[in-house]
Amino acid sequence: MAEPLLRVDRLVRRFEGIVATDNVSLVVPRGELHAIIGPNGAGKTTLISQLTGQLAPHSGSIYLAGRDITRLPAYRRSALGLARSFQVTSLLLDFTAADNVALAAQAHDGHSFRFFRNARMEEGLRKTAQAALQRVGLADRANTLVSKLSHGEQRELELAVALATRPQILLLDEPMAGLGVTESARMVKLLQELRKEVTIVLVEHDIEAVFALADRISVLVLGRVIASGTPSDIRQNEEVQRAYLGDQHVVTRQRNPDSEALRPR
Known about the structure:
Blueprint: E1 6-15, E2 18-28, E3 33-37, H1 44-52, E4 59-64, E5 67-68, H2 74-79, E6 82-85, H3 97-108, H4 123-135, H5 151-163, E7 169-173, H6 181-194, E8 199-203, H7 207-213, E9 216-221, E10 224-229, H8 231-235, H9 238-245, E11 251-255, E12 260-264
Parallel strand pairs: 3-8, 3-9, 6-7, 7-8
Antiparallel strand pairs: 1-2, 1-4, 4-5, 9-10, 11-12
Helix pairs in contact: 3-4, 3-5, 4-5
């Protein structure tokens, strides 16, 4: 069996006695879009932060393409091809869209000490930035200040910033947070295209989007993975319905051309 691109073995992280991730194990093959869902406080963002190196686990291991990266700092993981988007935007609002992407590419190439140089003057960085912006549909917004972009465009720009680092795997933390119906549909379409090129781990509350996109889904509740499988497996799992949606909800299934999702009402 081929080595998975990402493997997580029994990851534990505590905060003052609270177990945020409780022996979490995941396997993400290359080319898969693996979604992680769960109620608020389940430990999803804590898990992503451990994968990227922002938080150190108390125990357990993380492997990227067979290499143990558990103790590597975030910048070393980025150099190995791991990129993250955040639940709350982390863009430089007073820089242009192209500047944000070019600066990310510059830092990734090992020149973080030149962070405040005018990256747009370097031809290679300009080309990298333009290609990434083109990929997410923002080529015509390259010279627009980030503060002037819509919320949906800022979310797309975050993907361009991540893509500029030439990742093997994208860790996306709530990319559809705060998006309207039209913007969410555009983001789903973009992720459907990107999944053909890069492995994706997606943390998302939009269940309809998750079921439209995911190859496999892991359900995190109180820091534990209670189920992991195909969308069909998860949809039919009674423990998931009880723990994630709650006993007080009536679970229904809705079909549309793009997805079938569990929806509470």
